[in-house]
Amino acid sequence: MNLTVADCLGSSSALKEGEQELSGDTAYRVLALSLGHVPTLSHIASGKVREIYEIDAERLLFVATDRISAYDVILTQTIPDKGRVLTGLSRFFFDLLDAPNHLITTDLSDVPGLDDDEREDLTGRAMVVRRVEVIPIECVVRGYLYGSSWREYRDGGGPTTEHLPSGLQLADELVEPIFTPSTKATTGHDENITEAQTRQQLGDDLYEDLKQSSIDIYQRAGRHAAERGVILADTKFEFGRTADDEVILIDEVLTPDSSRYWPRDSWEPGHDVPSYDKQYVRDWLDTTDWDKTPPPPDLPDEVVSGTRNRYIEAYEKITDSSFDDYLQR
Ligand SMILES: Nc1ncnc2c1ncn2[C@@H]1O[C@H](COP(=O)(O)OP(=O)(O)OP(=O)(O)O)[C@@H](O)[C@H]1O
Ligand SMILES: [Mg+2]
Fold this sequence. Notes:
Blueprint: E1 3-4, H1 5-9, E2 21-22, H2 28-34, E3 42-46, E4 50-54, E5 59-64, E6 69-70, E7 73-74, H3 82-97, E8 103-105, H4 116-122, E9 126-130, E10 133-134, E11 137-144, H5 147-154, E12 173-179, E13 182-183, H6 195-202, H7 204-226, E14 230-241, E15 247-250, E16 259-263, H8 279-286, H9 301-319, H10 323-328
Antiparallel strand pairs: 1-2, 3-4, 4-5, 5-9, 6-7, 8-9, 10-14, 11-12, 11-13, 11-14, 14-15, 14-16
The structure holds adenosine-5'-triphosphate and magnesium ion.
């Protein structure tokens, strides 16, 4: 049986554009659930990785699938359990940080309309969250010079480098973390924007508020990771506004998809640093002649399992607990 991502998600899916085919030789249901398909609830939106369903006017079911994207294209293969790693790490940090956030519970027993099998299959990958108006800015914090910020810096400067001194090299630790927001593009790539542009969009009060909260959370999480031999080089947060006008942390937090985590031993300023994220997949894709438009090439089995291992290793190092235990809960 051949199954496309679009088949699993129904006709309202934004993913349909890609028409990416999955070699569906496993049971339809298992695959559909790893793709976040919950036919009994009303589907609100699809991101590249998540499926969002309405529970009621105040609550959403936020499902992390096993999809993986690279260069903004959703790859054909899924990474088994990746969605559970993302949900497990987000939940871990929501608990640890104790900052106002959207998580209500990961216990799905009160979610109406799910059958027992769905409830079991969604456990570990889904959260019940508060429904909010998303503030359309990606709140990026960087403690090290890398990625798009390094490219701007190397090429003469850009929005993320406006507060940086000269003379830095790739992967240098910054004297203090910097807040470098980007747009939340509905199509195409997110774009870094200047402090002035962000202040204009948010207003000064909200700008200060989001900057302060983002840097504070980055520093606390960074200390937690550092104690476990892991560098939190940078990360991205999203915030939303509740009906009673409270600004809260939303989305996934401090996962390998939203953050750049480095094993401390591999960090050397002036050099590329391998991270616990999809860099491993990107490196493999770079060995092919793929032009970064759909359809992407099929990932070999060893790249799928190597990627899965890195996500699980990140979970275990950062939470100090076994992923098998997480799956048993
Ligand atoms: N509590 C919430 N209420 C409403 N929307 C939320 C909430 N938390 C997160 N979101 C939104 O849900 C989506 C999560 O989906 P996902 O992570 O798959 O998207 P993405 O691939 O990162 O990017 P995009 O949003 O551009 O599709 C994001 O658009 C995020 O802004
Ligand atoms: Mg996202």
